[in-house]
Write a structure and sequence with these properties.
seven-stranded mixed sheet, 10 helices, alpha+beta, Immunoglobulin-like, single chain, 2 domains, Purple Acid Phosphatase, chain A, domain 2
Length: 478
């Protein structure tokens, strides 16, 4: 990616935004993508992560020198009366510096314009709008797999980045009000800084909040640690991943719990969720987001791993009344029946009212979809779909419901749709018994020991790959 004229890029951005709003089927031309890809802002890797709620946004971008970064933000496009929010700059693994700034005090239902500034670099002007009330829409994708592979055009940084942008454009054609992207792990293939820069390249992503979960491929390197700037990260955990921690945020009437399923430390995961719920006692919906597939059974050699994961994550979802769990990893699309205690309590249906358990959903990989049926489905799966095409999901949240529409890229009609409705804050969730709680606590404690040994393995892998990481920092996730 090379630097080009800021004026040319600004004109292109304006055309892109207008065209995307006015023409639902708009697709960026090769020439337009070339200009975006070679732009200075694409090289900087600007991304707007979620904040704690609609009053905040967290920004991150790279620079080749270290200075005090800041974000200028205003309600007018000319930035005549802007406010400045300062942040921090930390060394990134590939020699750059990662700049992180939190913008706070935002008003709901308001359009803002912003610029990211560090040293002699000033970005183009971008905009976003905060939501008001309980209704909003999100795009959910998984396993985007931005890939640094110069030998194969289809798997190059430029092409995989374009596919991600193209998918978001398609989602906007289904619902132009999307204000959140949920990406459930494996944003990158090798965990490289260049891959995360490419993940953010599209100018369309500068106007939407993004929430990412840690995937197993994100742990192949250490760049995810400096790339991200997340709210409410778990600072009380004793053992976590070196590259990131659990975090939460609230949007509308939904508490999103973004969990690291690479980390088997169930004791600290459960304690974190309990604190998040205590901090948001009146929020109606609870959506958990993590990477690993738990229930589909599509891949035989992973089933032993899935059994261990189910022992940790299933009881956590049961105990804390999680309504919906969004997953990835297997690259196969499945939706479970309503589950409690690893058992079916209600069959999957297009309409599920006050379900007495949790629905687990796995979306097909955006970057590497699979349509070969490796093994038959298990008893937990209520709906599955095989396709060789990339898929994405549009989630519509209201005070009383979550509606999911799933699409193949390039198709106008969803191949699956369902709605979960709750008539009360608790819905139909059951309480966990005392004996089950004791057993869950034992399993979670064992998970913490497992996580320590797993992190030792990660440390060895990172050292073998040439990363300069401290043993204790990597093992305990500091």
């Amino acid at each position: 990616m090379k630097t080009t004229s800021k004026k040319l890029l600004s004109v292109l951005l304006a055309v892109l935004m207008l065209a995307t709003t006015a023409i639902p089927s708009f697709a960026m031309s090769d020439i337009a993508w070339d200009l975006v890809w070679e732009g200075e802002d694409a090289e900087a890797g600007i991304i707007m992560f979620v904040g704690s709620d609609e009053t905040e946004r967290n920004f991150s971008w790279y620079s080749d020198t270290q200075s005090e970064p800041y974000v200028k933000i205003a309600k007018d496009v000319l930035m005549l009366s802007s406010s400045t929010f300062k942040g921090t700059s930390v060394a990134a693994p590939d020699g750059d510096y990662a700049n992180k700034v939190t913008v706070s005090g935002l008003e709901e239902g308001t359009t803002y314009f912003y610029q990211c500034v560090s040293g002699d670099y000033t970005s183009a002007v971008y905009s976003f709008k905060t939501e008001s009330g309980t209704d909003f829409s999100a795009m959910y994708v998984t396993d985007v797999h931005i890939t640094q592979n110069d030998d194969t055009k289809e798997n190059s940084l430029k092409e995989t980045s374009y596919r991600f942008s193209e998918t978001y454009e398609a989602a906007l054609s289904q619902n132009s009000d999307i204000s959140l992207i949920l990406s459930t792990g494996d944003q990158a293939t090798e965990g490289l800084e260049s891959e995360y820069k490419a993940y953010t390249a599209s100018p369309l992503f500068k106007s939407v909040s993004i929430s990412t979960a840690i995937g197993n491929h994100d742990r192949k390197g250490v760049a995810y640690k400096t790339f991200t700037n997340m709210p409410n990260e778990d600072t009380e955990t004793s053992v976590s991943s070196y590259v990131g921690k659990d975090y939460w945020f609230v949007k509308g009437d939904v508490l999103f719990l973004i969990m690291d399923s690479n980390n088997g430390n169930g004791a600290d995961h459960a304690a974190f969720i309990e604190r998040a719920i205590e901090a948001n006692p009146d929020v109606k919906w609870r959506v958990m987001v993590c990477h690993h597939d738990l229930y589909s059974g599509r891949i035989p050699h992973r089933e032993s791993e899935n059994k261990l994961l189910r022992m940790i994550w299933g009881p956590i979802a049961d105990e804390y009344g999680i309504d919906l769990v969004l997953l990835g990893h297997s690259h196969y699309y499945t939706v479970t029946n309503v589950l409690y205690n690893n058992k079916n309590v209600t069959d999957f249906a297009p309409e599920m009212v006050d379900p007495a358990g949790t629905v687990y959903m796995v979306s097909c990989s955006l970057g590497r979809p699979r349509d070969d049926e490796e093994i038959g489905l298990n008893e937990w799966v209520g709906f599955d779909y095989l396709t060789e095409n990339a898929t994405y999901n549009v989630l519509d949240f209201t005070k009383d419901s979550i509606t999911v529409n799933s699409y193949e890229l390039g198709e106008d009609e969803p191949f699956n749709s369902y709605t979960i409705t709750k008539t009360t804050n608790n819905g139909g969730h059951q309480e966990t018994g005392a004996l089950q709680s004791l057993w869950n606590g034992f399993v979670r404690g064992c998970g913490k020991i497992y996580a320590l040994f797993n992190n030792i393995g990660v440390y060895s892998d990172l050292k073998e790959d040439g990363y300069d990481v401290d043993f204790f920092d990597c093992v305990f996730g500091k």
